[in-house]
Amino acid sequence: MKSLYVRVVLTFFVVTVLALLSALLTGLKLFETDLNDLQQSEMVTAGQNIIRLYQQANPQDLDAFLSGTDALVSYPVQIVAASGETKIYGAEKYADPVRISQNAIDRVLAGGRYQSVVKAEGAFVGLPFSSGDEHYALFLLPSSKNEAMIIRLILTFLLLTLVFGGLYILIAARYLVKPLKLMTQATKRLAARDFNVALKMKRKDEIGTLARSFNEMAQELKQMEHMRQEFVSNVSHEIQSPLTSISGFAKALMDDKLVTEDNRDKYLAIIHKESERLSRLSDNLLKLASLESDHHPFTLAAYHLDEQLRQVVLACEPLWSAKSISLELQLPSAAKITADPDQLNQVWMNVLGNSIKFTPNGGRILLAMSRTTNGYAVSITDSGKGIAPEDLPHIFERFYKTDRSRNQISGSGLGLAIVKKIVALHHGSIHAVSTIGHGTTITIQLPEKIS
Asked: Are residues 279 and 369 in the same domain?
């Protein structure tokens, strides 16, 4: 019973037997009256034929004649004379003894026809006929041979239905179970971390839908595994680089022969800078994990977005002033929004910080905000070197850097990934447009209120 194949076959047999028995009993109940009427009609016809044959032959010996008609009809014949003498011909055909009431006998002897009430008296009919001066009542009784034949027919039909149905279900069950076995094998491969698995099924039923869903799941797991490996590789690289610097310079500082007094402060500054880089990386990883776990604090408040943007520009003034960058603002006043001010503040700091970082000395940055149908659009445009078309679709991915040499030490590649996640939590959108040599524009659209 642990096999689905066996369960399908046994279920078919049980269901088929129950269905056939239910159908048989229901059919007999529905057509009981019609079947009884048909049987009595056949009895009447058989009796009339016997009487007609007797009148045509006009035999001298009634007993011999009725004994000879036994082979012509399938019903037992009972003769009752006016004197009350009773004889039965074909008694071996009896189903169950039928007790004919005296009222029925008297009515037939008086020249009337009698059809029994089946449920109360049993199935029989009575016809009158005369032989010379004698009057008789001829009764045709139910036949056990007919009932036995009907029972054998029904049982044979049930048996053949089960046999042929069983053979067909054995074949059909294999067709049903085979794809499930393939899915089981594929699932075991997935459990063994083999994600290069695909079920090739062109079925359009529920199993086909399940197979397609399985293939989609396998592809997503494969992609997730690739992302996991890439994530581990990126984190390892980002951590290993500063750790190598810290370890190397720390060892150098421990040996007075390798480090002069003039270089000691320089090495200490490098160690401090790399430590801060590790700290930022750790903070960003924790923050991104918190955002993706949906447990990050999310506090909505109504405030003026234009004022927040002005404060961010002031906070970054040492950075853009040091590079003599011209920073222009185009902000409408009283732009009220309902959002998490702390999270959006990080969005503006990260995006504006990137623009300042990649804008050359004496460059230009434009921070503009405009009203949209249901909120605001904030765009930050710089005059930096731009982003290559092949890199542009990936800049919001974790650890992605446009510098393929990975020599940048100023960033971890997590800033824009955090920005995208925060914007998504606010039901907004972010996209970038860039042209090599002409700078980059990042536009963030936010609803006025989160529904």
From this structure: no
- What's this model's pTM, rounded to 2 decimal places? 0.48
Same domain, residue pair 340 and 286: no
Tokens standing for 347? 């969005």
Domain range enclosing 50: 31-142
- Residue 88: closest CA among 111, 66, 106, 113: 66
pLDDT digits (tens, 9 = 90+) for 108-135: 898 899 988 877 777 889 999 888 788 8
Contact 79, 137 (CB under 8 A): yes
Write down the residue that tokens 């960058």 correspond to. Answer: 325
Instruction: Answer yes or no: do 138 and 240 share one domain.
Output: no
> What is the CA angle 109-114-116, rounded to 5?
135
**Phi, psi values for residue 107, rounded to 5°:** -65, -40
pLDDT digits (tens, 9 = 90+) for 371-389: 998 899 999 999 988 888 8
Q: Read off the CATH number of the domain in which 218 is found.
A: 1.10.287.130
CB < 8 Å & 24+ apart, contacts of 177-184? 177/4, 177/5, 177/8, 179/203, 179/207, 179/211, 180/4, 180/207, 183/210, 183/211, 183/214
The DSSP secondary structure of 356-402, one letter per residue, reads: HHHSPTT-EEEEEEEE-SSEEEEEEEE-SS---TTTGGGTTSTT--S
Report how many domains make up the chain. 3
164: Cβ contacts below 8 Å, ≥ 6 apart: none
